[in-house]
């Protein structure tokens, strides 16, 4: 297949969902586009080096998006803050919305997801947005399944704490 | 499954709409998606990615590059500097600005030996892209500075970048770029240097017709003399369609960006861009790009300015006959004299989406017929070739640089090539001498070419070694003969063997050339470099 045709087909098939995955990981529209563009370039290279079945394109691209995101984050990890759940919630202690306030809960959860460590957020996005099993996530991240479970557990714990500062104000989420 | 898990799913799904739309991605890929992706990897990422290392390390190495300076201008070079080897230096002062670790030179321009300017982008400590300029005076590079005025303009989240610089005289340069006035918006700025001092960047005025869109980018800048320049680019109109624009500076005053009526008339498919411009004299410029015809097929476009009026636009003569695949465009243009220009572009042949380079010549104001670059068909068997840069020392004496794919079906290598025109005749394109041995990884491009006189040119770009690492190369033509390409000296000291590439080269009249680009430092951050003429970096 002509490489330009291949790119066009890849974008048509996988572009919209990959952009959403990239956005949920990076929380940045421009960076989401960059992640997907980088992934496309990698996959084109892979198409040249080996036969990649069209049904595998999306998974390959998703892995490339995730790896590029993690690579970039690792480079700046020394500058990443260890945030408390209180900070994550964006609310001062004692001002906690009631559980009946679903809209606020969701806003808080979205904020808290964005403040997780990059590996925790990646695991949760792959689990809850991409519906991947832990073994599949481990394959994407190149780590042990136990590591995935640990990251997910800590991430979920941090989210719950963010939703309930009484539990989590002292809890670090990394 | 817990309700909390479901809540997470719902929250993620609810924010899907905030993700970028795929149409934007498709637009950014343009008519040659693969080339666009490669370009994006090197250039666009520097503008927007903003995700690299927090702490950049200033790496400065001694650097000298000149090609037989004969007649130094304002900046006198040391008398003992004659044909020193190519070397590279980090731009003084830039690592301190580049706290976000994502910088590159986008454009360099030289007015005289030892008097050049580099423009580009870096990311600040908030990971926002910012525009910078750095100047060379008397062979020494001064510290890079935030492009004056852009701090006020760049209030959005898409960053800022100097995309083009042009220097008709030492200390009298012009820069163009874009910045983000508000979240998710981009607009074009211009700035002028007067007596060695940069004035504040300001938004390029727009006509009311252009003022409705929220996104515009500048792609080309050319100055025929001090204060007499032109820029071209594209903007999104109110219907979210790409439209081409041009704007002129006369006697130091910028006029409004306007859509070119003749180009809009051709653009029945509502997808047009101008990507390159060259001005031989004030008010006499040529620009190139593409438009979409009524069938949605992209066609190569030429637009002409005569006596200050962008009055005509036309499909490249003969290109539509070559463009069986419906994907063509003009990629570079050079006008050494008014009405005597050269343009390069690409078309897609039968069964291919794109990528056979063509050239077309203008004589006394009349464009000839587009011709496939001689010899390229035999090299570009993968039908994925393009010309990245074109430089003409005089009418009929030009050099073009680009890349081609050696075999179809994803089995080939991407190689860098140069082609030369002497006495109006294009000789066959050749792989950049010496680059084949360097490019074991199979991905190279002669990204930029520049000439100080006919037969005396340079080509800069990148190659990929057997380990998959991209590195900057430089090749020099002397007396019409290309010497073997070589890795840019000094780069290993800067990059520690990490990725690098030349984005832009420029030559002054007396055989003095400068290159600029990017490299990855030991911490994974992306830094910008230039070459210099008298050793160490200068006044940092």
Q: Give the C-alpha Rg of chain A.
A: 18 Å
Instruction: List the total number of helices of chain A.
Output: 9
Based on the structure, what is the oligomeric state of the protein chains?
Answer: heterodimer
CATH architecture of the largest domain in chain A: Orthogonal Bundle
Principal-axis shape of chain A equals globular
Task: Give, in order, the helices and strands of chain A.
Answer: HHHHHHHHH
How many DSSP helices of chain B?
Answer: 10
The chain-level structural class of chain B is: mainly beta
Overall pLDDT level of chain A: 70
Annotated CATH topology of the largest domain in chain A: Arc Repressor Mutant, subunit A
Low-confidence stretches of chain B at least 5 residues in length (pLDDT < 50)? 43-84, 534-540
Helix content of chain A: over 70%
Gyration radius over CA of chain B: 22 Å
Q: SSE layout and pairings?
A:
The complex is a heterodimer of chains A (174) and B (540).
Chain A: H1 3-26, H2 29-49, H3 57-75, H4 85-89, H5 102-115, H6 118-128, H7 134-141, H8 145-163, H9 165-168
Chain B: H1 3-14, H2 22-29, H3 33-48, E1 89-90, H4 94-97, E2 104-112, E3 115-123, E4 129-137, E5 140-142, E6 145-146, H5 150-153, E7 161-169, E8 172-179, E9 187-194, E10 197-198, E11 202-203, E12 216-225, E13 228-236, E14 242-250, E15 253-254, E16 258-259, H6 261-266, E17 273-281, E18 284-292, E19 298-306, E20 309-315, H7 319-322, E21 329-337, E22 340-347, E23 356-363, E24 366-367, E25 371-372, H8 376-379, E26 386-394, E27 397-405, E28 414-422, E29 425-426, E30 430-431, H9 435-438, E31 445-453, E32 456-464, E33 470-478, E34 481-482, E35 486-487, H10 491-495, E36 500-507, E37 513-520, E38 526-530, E39 538-539
Parallel strand pairs in B: 5-39
Antiparallel strand pairs in B: 1-38, 2-3, 3-4, 4-5, 4-6, 7-8, 8-9, 9-10, 9-11, 12-13, 13-14, 14-15, 14-16, 17-18, 18-19, 19-20, 21-22, 22-23, 23-24, 23-25, 26-27, 27-28, 28-29, 28-30, 31-32, 32-33, 33-34, 33-35, 36-37, 37-38
